[in-house]
Amino acid sequence: MFETILLCAAIALGLISIPIVYRMIVGPTVLDRAVALDMLVVQVIMGLALYSAWTATTFAIIPALALSATAFIGTLALARFVARADAPERKDAEQ
After folding, report:
1. Which residue, 89, 76, 70, 86, is CA-closest to 29?
2. What are the counts of helices (DSSP H) followed by strands (DSSP E) for the chain?
């Protein structure tokens, strides 16, 4: 019974990743692609968790934690980059 539930969850993860990859390719803006990439990273982390549950080991937990920390730092870096691009220019010549 537990294996059936895990198999259904793995199939759902596979099907959900199709529109995510489509948004990464087609996404009209860089932010759309970045959100899709974050969603794909979450999909991979959930896949690693499913693998750990399926094999009843904790082998994939450490890479999942490392991947989530790396994705968090990357998201923060992108947010700062976009915030700087949208910020108005300072007028240093007036001072």
Report:
1. 86
2. 3, 0
